[in-house]
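Entry 0007
Protein: Putative neutral zinc metallopeptidase
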Amino acid sequence: MYSSYIIIVPAIILSLYAQFKVQSTFNKYLKVPSVSGETGYSVARRLLDSNGLYTIPIEVSGGRLSDHYDPISRVVRLSEDVYYGNSLASISVAAHETGHAIQHATSYTPLMIRHRIFKVANIGSNLSWILVLAGIFFQASNLILLGIIFFTCAVAFQVITLPVEFNASSRALTMLEKNAILSREEVKGSKKVLDAAALTYVAAALVSVLELLRLILIFNRSND
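Output (structure tokens):
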């Protein structure tokens, strides 16, 4: 049993490092004002409009690093630091979330797949461990197997999230330089902010994959 827990230790360490990295990098570049002086809001509005997305609103979101694009309401939500800030961090995050809105508008395939499996993945994530624990308690390997199947949906969601996030960051960096919002030197700092954020998704995907492997080991032991 202990060996199954050891499997996920590297992923947990990576997750902790990723959280530290994104916080420290964001804080560092939050103190670096952009030469253009544009705020996260003005950059997001400018990029949305330049892509014909005039009707997508931009709202302030409560909390720190709570920035996201809501595909259901079709709204870009930015935290106060990003919405009002004119730092490299603020502009980078705003452009990244705009990238998600553009993905949605252009029906970017990985994003569309992620939307379609979201509900199943959410149910699978919550239900899988109940089934596994019930299977262990009742010594019913078929319940453990069913839990693994449900959890696989959650893993698929985490894995498909990677190209979605990487592509949004790539779009952001291209747009920031192409529209002369950031200089080439500033884009290097912007890339560091977005790379640090991307590491959190890599860590989450790795944790999910290793958790799935752990469940498979538990299932194999139940059949021994």
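Curator remark: Residues 2-222 form one domain. The mean pLDDT is 93.
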